[in-house]
Amino acid sequence: MNRNQLRQLLEVIGGLVLLQGAVGLVHEFTGWLGWGLIQHIGFLDGREVYGSIALIVLAIALFAAAGSQKES
């Protein structure tokens, strides 16, 4: 796997993680979009907002890691 492929993989994973974090927050505050993964993780019952925020922070870290990869 070369650097360009790694960068693209990090961006795709970061996008999916960001989407799941955003869906979790939307669901907690509005009740819409109940299809996110956060709502189905049992040990996060009552702490879904914190889990969603953690996913968004993880997505930002993945985007930063992808951005730090120099194009070859």
If you had to describe this structure to a student in words, what would you say it looks like?
The longest helix is centred in the first third of the chain and has 28 residues, at 3-30. It is built from 2 helices and no strands. It has helices at 3-30, 48-68. Helices cover 68% and strands 0% of the residues. The model has no long low-confidence stretch (mean pLDDT 90). It has 72 residues and is mainly α.
Which series of helices and strands comes N to C?
Answer: HH
Radius of gyration: 14 Å
Give the number of helices. 2
Distance between the termini: 12 Å
Main sheet: strands, sense, barrel: none
Low-confidence stretches: none
What multimeric state do the chains show? single chain
State the shape: elongated
| Estimated share of beta-strand residues | under 5%
Mean pLDDT: 90
The total of beta strands comes to: 0
Instruction: Estimate percent helicity.
Output: 55-70%
Structural class: mainly alpha
Layout: helices, strands, pairs:
Elements: H1 3-30, H2 48-68
Helix pairs in contact: 1-2
Question: Which terms would index this structure?
Answer:
72 residues; mainly alpha; 2 helices
